[in-house]
Design a protein that fits this description.
Structural class: alpha/beta
Distance between the termini: 78 Å
Radius of gyration: 37 Å
Number of strands: 7
CATH architecture of the largest domain: 2-Layer Sandwich
Helix content: 40-55%
Strand order of the largest sheet: 3-2-1-4-5
Shape: rod-shaped
């Protein structure tokens, strides 16, 4: 190339014509597809970058090919410039396996629940990281009522009835009594014929031996009769029935009943009263002592201690429907 700078124009043009004719002869006899080395591609791309008009002189390669090579080199260059250079520390392999195991063993759990369990095991990890490594599967109260509940949560209990079908299509009634302070289940009652006297006795069993709550939230079901009202007044509890067709006013109890169905009763065939009572009591122990809650900062109603040392052990609850993770 340096020598060509001192040669005459006529000599260069004659040499160019000679080379072009030789290329035409080779094109007639050579195979259709040519193999190019990396250095060949770099030379073509470099010449195209310095002198774009040289594409008109290309004979053994199409101009579109040179442009494609140039774009591929451009992508490779910026891929190299954008390579990862550090960041947040990666999650250890054993923790990722534990998250996947938890999500597989507990298909009803979401990222918040698994994150709460990991915090109780002394594993500091973000909830978004938990959601990343999980196995993939396919109307709020008014401000005035929420303020009332927040200011009086420790002195409020809520109760509600729910229906459970048995294996023989017989209907059983479950009575739920819960405290608003720590969302703790205080009592479960089971009967086939709920009456005002039976409900009053259940309330005494739930609250009679401990500090009596100040308020009781319930709906306007006809089962809460005059006997039940008199029992409330004798215990010094102020009755607060919700408005008609307003289940949101007893939102904590309604939400808890939904959790009981989604996490327990929807996966169990009930044989009778005794079986239902056993299942509900097992779920009550799990709910109060093990299950983490968003409203309690990922803690259980009966606060759990954080375990940081020991081997992680999985304990089945309700026959493996849920699990408790502890360190031993």
């Amino acid at each position: 190339m340096v020598v060509d700078l001192f040669r005459s124009r006529a000599t260069l043009e004659a040499e160019i014509l000679t080379l072009r004719q030789q290329i035409n002869v080779l094109r007639r006899t050579a195979p259709t597809k040519h193999a190019f080395r990396t250095i060949d591609r770099l030379i073509f791309v470099g010449l195209y970058w310095l002198f774009p008009k040289v594409r008109d002189a290309l004979a053994i390669v199409k101009p579109e090919t040179v442009v494609r090579w140039h774009r591929a080199g451009f992508r490779s260059y910026w891929r190299w410039r954008s390579r990862p250079r550090g960041g947040w520390p990666t999650v250890p392999l054993d923790i990722r396996k534990l998250i996947r195991e938890m999500s597989i063993a507990n298909p009803l759990w979401g990222a918040p629940r698994i994150h709460g369990e990991l915090l109780k095991l002394g594993i500091e990890i973000g909830q978004t990281s938990v959601a990343k490594y999980m196995t993939r599967r396919r109307g709020p109260p008014s401000q005035g009522w929420k303020t009332f509940l927040r200011n009086h949560a420790d002195g409020i209990v809520a109760m509600d009835l729910f229906v459970v079908p048995t294996i023989s299509f017989r209907l059983l009634y479950g009575l739920l009594i819960m405290g608003h302070g720590r969302r703790q289940i205080l009592w479960f009652g089971v009967t086939s014929h709920p009456s005002a006297e039976w409900i009053a006795n259940q309330l005494v069993e739930a609250c009679g031996w401990e500090q009596t709550p100040r308020y009781l939230i319930r709906d306007r079901d006809g089962a809460y009769g005059e006997v039940f009202i008199r029992r409330l007044r004798s215990m010094g509890i102020r009755d607060r029935p919700t408005s008609p067709r307003s289940p949101w006013q007893n939102g904590y109890a309604e939400r808890l009943i939904g959790s009981i169905r989604r996490e327990c009763l929807d996966y169990v065939v009930v044989f009778g009263e005794r079986h239902l009572r056993h299942v509900l009591l097992s779920y009550m122990n799990y709910y109060n002592e093990t299950r983490t809650h968003l409203s309690l900062d990922k803690d259980a109603p009966l606060s759990r201690t954080v375990q940081r040392a020991g081997r992680i052990l999985r304990l089945p609850i309700l026959g493996g429907l849920h699990h408790q993770y502890v360190r031993i």
